[in-house]
Amino acid sequence: ERMKEYIAVAKNGAGRYQMRLALAKELAAEGNLRDARATLLACTADDWSRTEHWIWLGDIAYEQDQHEEALQFYRYASTSVGHEIPFSPWWMEESLYTYLPAQRMAQVLVDLGHYAEALEWAKRVLEQLPTEEIWEEARDEAKQNIAAIEQAIESN
Question: How much helix, strand and coil, in percent to the nearest 5, is found in the chain?
């Protein structure tokens, strides 16, 4: 209730955005995906430059087997891939602006049978992963995903 009160009265858009994310996370943890979704849809009014909410909305839709809707939300999130992360006084998860949107796009496109576009996004995942050695396992998985999509394309 306090989170909802803050959202209703706060003048700081970036602060409201962050509070909406926190509230949506709590609502989803309680199993209230309908209200979590509604909360996330309002995020663009508070901070148009951020894309975390699009990933979360896509994840909710994907979890409910609404792949076309998930695809559209992931498309919105993917607009940030390869570009500078927006400024915010709040902590932001870099992965939500680099490889995760690309990964989600590849995943849902495979599920929808759009293999050529899925392959493009799978390659972008590999491009966007951090280069540190600790990410080697993730790079190996990305390469395996690319190979699997290429094999699916050859089979069709």
Answer: 75, 0, 25
- The token duo for 36 is 């979590």
Exposure b/e, 88-98, CB count within 10 A at least 16 = b: eeeebeeebbb
The owner of tokens 């989170």 is 3
pLDDT digits (tens, 9 = 90+) for 33-54: 999 999 999 998 898 889 999 9
pLDDT tens track for 95-111:
999 999 999 999 999 99
Q: How many CB atoms lie within 10 A of CB 127?
A: 12
What's the token pair of residue 69? 């809707």
What Cα–Cα distance (Å) separates residue 57 from each residue in 25, 35, 51, 64, 155?
11, 11, 10, 11, 32
- Are 20 and 46 spatial neighbours (Cβ–Cβ below 8 Å)? yes
Q: Which residues 6+ apart lie within 8 Å of 144 measured at CB?
A: none
pLDDT above 90: percentage of residues in the chain? 75
d(CA 11, CA 2): 15
Residue 27 is given by DSSP the state H
> Three-state SS for 138?
helix
